[in-house]
Amino acid sequence: MGIKSEFHPTAIVHPSAKIGERVKIGPYSTIGEDVVILDDCVVGNNVLIEGHTTIGRNNVFHHGASIGSPPQDLKYEGQATRVDIGDDNTFREFVTVHRGTGDTGKTTIGSRCFLMAYAHVAHDCVLGDEVIIANAVNMGGHVHVEDYASIGGVSAVHQFVSIGQHAFIGGGSRLTRDIPPFVMAAGNPCRVYGVNSVGLERRGFSAARRGMIKRMYMLLYRQGLNVSQVIEQLKHGDFEDPDRSILVDFLVAAGRGITK
Questions:
Q1: Residues near 43 by beta carbon (within 8 Å), at least 6 away in sequence
Q2: Annotated catalytic residue: which of 86, 140, 141, 153?
Q3: Catalytic: 158?
Q4: What's the pLDDT band for 52 if we cut at 50, 70, 90?
Q5: Numbered ranges of CATH 2.160.10.10 in the chain
Q6: Is 141 among the residues known to form the active site?
């Protein structure tokens, strides 16, 4: 036990688990033998953290969260796969995060993310920093959510879908294709409706920078070009980095096609 850490008498903490300083573990929670929890984390009541799970500093896990359980994948054969979590994240009630499969070996969540109640992060998913996942969002395996993206409640994300930086997904959406950076999208099936101007402004993007992003959006969606042609025009046009590189890199890597 770390210095000044507090374990409720009903909590079950495996003696091999590595617990940092000032960690609080609430009633009836269970911490497995291969778990690492760094300093200043709060684990509420009835929380399960198991498997090869490493948790950074200052994370909060609310009632009923389940972290590091085996993946829901019939190909999984019990390999010692992982969950890696950064710092300053909040996991609300009954959030589930499954560890990776043999494909990539781990599920990763960055720092300063907010996962609301009943959200599910499946095996081999990668969440960047400052991601917001609203209530009852369900992700398939291998989903990649980049930094600052937000997904509205009760949305379903197909396996292998990627969601770009600063994208905003409206609630109740069904995502089967990749969502480019900087856009707003919603619906079943999901459609892109424009640039996430409000979100970009809130994050300090200047009017000029937002205007340039809108020009890139128009090139991608309003000029009748295919993705390869858009990439070439972005590379050789008067667009500025880092936003140009963010969009180009995403389009080059897109594996499921771009949402229309």
A1: 23, 24, 25, 26, 29, 31, 37, 49, 61
A2: 141
A3: no
A4: very high
A5: 6-142
A6: yes
Distance separating alpha carbons of residues 75 and 142, to the nearest angstrom? 14
The verdict on whether 178 is a catalytic residue reads: no
Question: Strand, coil or helix: what is 60?
Answer: strand
Q: 247 in helix, strand or coil?
A: helix
CA separation for the pair 99, 124 (Å, rounded)? 7
Given CATH 1.20.1180, say whether it is the number of domain 199-253. Answer: yes
The string of pLDDT tens digits covering residues 60-90 is 999 999 999 999 999 999 999 999 999 999 9
Enter the tokens of residue 239. 């667009």
Task: Label residue 170 by pLDDT band (50, 70, 90).
Answer: very high
3-state secondary structure 103-129: CCCEEEECCCCEECCCCEECCCCEECC
Sequence ranges of the chain with CATH classification 1.20.1180: 199-253
Cα(60)–Cα(70) distance, integer angstroms? 21
Catalytic residue among 124, 147, 178, 243: 124
**Other beta carbons less than 10 A from residue 28's beta carbon:** 15
pTM over 0.85: yes
> What CATH number labels 6-142?
2.160.10.10
